[in-house]
Amino acid sequence: MFSLPILSQVFINGLSLSSIYILVALGFTLLFGIMRVVNFAHGAFAMLGGYALYYLYGMYGLPYPVAVVGGALLVALLALVLERLVFRWFYHKMFQSMIALLGLNMALVYAAVLIWDVNERSLPAVTDTMLDVHGVLLPMDRLIIMGIAVVVLGLFWFFVTHTRQGLAMRAAALDSDIAATQGINTRFIYMLAFFIAIFMTALAGGLYAQTYALSPFMGDRPLMVAFIVVILGGMGSVSGAALGGVLLGFAESFLSTFYGASVSSFVSFGVVVALLIFRPWGLLGKPE
Predict the structure, then answer these.
(1) Chain centre to alpha carbon of residue 154
(2) 34-64 as b/e, with b when 16 or more CB fall inside 10 Å?
(3) Which of 67, 179, 224, 262 could form a disulfide bond with 184, CB atoms 3.0-4.6 angstroms apart?
(4) d(Cα 36, Cα 43) in Å, to the nearest integer?
(5) Is 85 a domain residue?
(6) Quick check: is 251 in a domain?
């Protein structure tokens, strides 16, 4: 049952799922940590990232890395219009943002239904080749997806820790009023954080659609994953989002492989309920 080929497959699936889940959760926790916005439209932006990849890669045949990054950039740029019209009115209004962005999510999802209908679509595989490592076959498409996610996560880490704008984002997350008094343009920082959050969400949506299937309702799963991951790691904690994504990705890969998807979902939600009871601020979050 626990043979080396199966365990290696579980490990690779866990790594690829973890990288996608971290991207999803970082987009969610970035908006909450800096602007105190609970983005219920998170899944809709992931869905739009999937459709952007579908057209750029599946229809127009752009190289996969260009299509997946370009699609996420396109969604993030278009989302700046919604940042101007909707999101900025709910910064630092946590409970109001929940209701407003839930409505925005429904509007985007059913607009997608009107445009693309409800049928699922499949994106063409990145590659069908397998990598043979000492007799263990590893799917190259999962490795490519994981590699793209890891590169983007590494660039995000470098940006946050080694650039002026990244440090300004961290300062605004701690206290936006004090950051403004120190000369930081919080309006620009909010817009930049929003752009980065939606970019990572749309990128994760494209990778998720590549792995599973694409439909207007596919965003429900990334939204649920984002909630689970940020609850595990702690709302507003970037390191917590990374830890939560790794834990959920590997747990889901292992449990769904050996015990089925229902057991995996039961354990995931059971852990979240227990954590909310005994440590509601998450593993790496701080109580407020």
Answers:
(1) 15
(2) bbbbbbbbbbbbbbbbbbbbbebbbeeebeb
(3) 179
(4) 18
(5) yes
(6) no
* One-letter amino acid of 103: G
* Cα atoms in the Cβ-side hemisphere of radius 13 Å centred on 16: 22
Contact 14, 250 (CB under 8 A): yes
Domain that holds residue 156: 16-219
Indicate the number of domains in the chain: 1
Contact 248, 225 (CB under 8 A): yes
| pLDDT, position 41 | 92
- The mean pLDDT value for 262-268 works out to 81
pLDDT (0 to 100) of residue 106: 93
Q: How many other CB atoms are found less than 10 A from the CB of residue 92? A: 12
258, part of any domain: no
Task: Tell me which residue of 250, 257, 95, 41 sits closest to 271, measured CA to CA.
Answer: 250
Q: Which residue has the tokens 């996560």?
A: 153
